[in-house]
Amino acid sequence: MSGVFEFLKGCVRQVVSGGKAYKAWVAFLLATILVGALAYAEQARGGLIVTNMRDEVSWAFYIGNFTFLVGVAAAAVLLVIPAYVYQWKPIKEVVVLGELLAISALVMCLLFILVDMGRPERFLHIMPFVGTPNFPRSLLTWDALVLNSYLLVNVVLVSYLMFKTYRGQSYDKRIFLPLVLLSIPVSLSTHTVTAFLYNGMAARPYWNASILAPRFIASAFCSGPAVMIILFQVLRKAFKFPIQNEAIWKIAELMSYAMFVNLFLLGAELFKEYYSATEHLLYTQYLWTGIGEHRTLVPYAWFALFCSVVAFVLFLIPWTRRNFATLNLGCLLIWAGVYIEKGMGLIIPGMTPDTLGQIYEYKPTLVEWGVAAGVFGVGFLVFTLLVKIAVPILVGTFRAEGAAASAEAPDARVAAH
Amino acid sequence: MTSRKALNVIQDGGADPLGAEPMNPSRRAFLRTAAAGAAVSALAGCGVDVGEFLRSHFKELSRDELAKVLAKVERRNKERFGKDTKVTAEGPRPGVEFGYGLDISRCVGCRRCVYACVKENNQSREQPQIHWIRVLEMEKDHGVDLAHSELYYDADTVPRPGKFYFPVQCQQCRNPPCVKACPTQATWKEQDGIVVIDYDWCIGCRCCMSACPYGARHMNWAEPKLPAAELNPVQHYLGNRPRPKGVVEKCTFCIQRTRNGRYPACVEVCPVGARKFGNLLDPESEIRRVMETKRVFVFKEELATHPQFYYFYAT
After folding, report:
1. What is the topology classification, in CATH, of domain A19-416?
2. Which among A118, A242, A328, B110 could bridge A415 via Cys, Cβ 3.0 to 4.6 Å?
3. Between chains, do B31 and A138 touch, taking CB under 8 Å as contact?
């Protein structure tokens, strides 16, 4: 492994050099991380009481963000499927960027779990061999297992691919393809297991519906690719990155199908709840119409539905799908819609009313917003830095000495396609 | 009823007070020491108790290790409250399985049980205020219906016309969803049916709170606020010892009392005799008498948690 040190040095050089916009962006992210660190220090000092979580609503904003980000992590890699099926030439680039997004999203997921814990310093108790994980009974141990496996697969795959390309060598398909193919079921399992974490709780009728895992997957197919579409455009401008319009439009088309499935499953759920109108209807009612004067979530629920429906229409009609203004608007709407639906819209009604029928209206405190901003800051920073290293390697401007010329060829062919 | 034994839980040849099973020094402890080496020095710098960090699971502790752990809790109590306390880890007794009966037709909703429990079990008094027993005021028109129940009624004016009262606490399920959900085995069901928590093993993830259908589990959202003067010095390691910040706690049928043949505090204080307690395996016990002569039901039976806590209407 000669040249690893050179490679690392080169990576640092890539990260610290950059234009004004890049530096301003990194400075902004560092500022949000500082805010997060200060907020977390406050929480570590006083305990979770500085949040608005209480016994009635014992999981809230942090866990909501965690759930949403598991979807982002899962779906980024799911893009590999269409890339593979439709035989897009820049499949390597799609894979790498998807995995980088997955890595960053997973970092955020793990951080959100960590900041939600009452005793984070006891993390060893859940680890195999050194702790006493309640495996296989507890779904959280499953979730820790699949999230960390997924993180590991992605890190190995990306490191291998990047280092090989940096050295100007072509990657070994016997290593690359099995790992990519492995990452697909693992990515699906992360989201399924996370859905099962809620799904398995008979005490919470709002979550205890078998439609939950399919809905998770459907909405994840929307939120993850939405980020990728925006990213592809940024990279195209900044680095002459070889991604064609057709590939982006194809992703958008697939997203509209995913959104249709998502909306259909939502409709199926709403029908069952409202038509049968059992005592379990209360939770759905809390989200969509409120219970008496308790209506905190109602505007958000309808806003999310509005976003999802508009985005669905925008991505369905070929003209708006191919117009980059409406396409990007659709991505933003999807992001907002799924963020509400898979975050607070999933967690809070699961716990309101609580198991004894009492209603506590939850709203995050400033500390919770601060900690969440910090976690997002870390995630976006990780993503920015990884992309800053990976893209020059992919387009051939960051290479080991003496490897540059030979490595240009395959990428150039891809771009010309 | 007077001729019956009130509470037949103590049998001859009582169990080993330090736990039932002999423990082997575990390989796990070695692994933990080896793997955690680096992390320890880091955490020690952050003021984390290293001994606690390297400790084994409660069920794996040897007799000596357990004695040390108990001594440490007493020492910590002394530092925190300036008072001498007696902390034991009295194990379950053979031939005992606790059962609880609550007579809904008697309960008047005075909440004396709630406050007796708080006092006995060293709960946090405020910020957060933790109550292991929660009494719901329900409407006679609706029966047991949570959607028409009120937790925050005024207990000075009870019983109110048209209302009845429905106290809820840990139901000590035979099929406890909380134990299933806990990722670290920090909570488990003991031989005598009591579901316990090791507050030094809990990571505060609150999966158990989401899983519990009875709202019986409570989080120490902040350092519990417990005046030293009100500290109950008779403590059980898995029960009423003062809790640290960031862990979950719940009713243990007053493990520190009932394993010594006493009634839970809530049973003792109830002014109308609505609360019955005893050994389900003893045909002569009060709880068995209730089950034979009255018709009992369990709360949320559709969830198949199979509680050891029964409700009944005596009149």
Report:
1. Formate dehydrogenase/DMSO reductase fold (1.20.1630)
2. A242
3. no
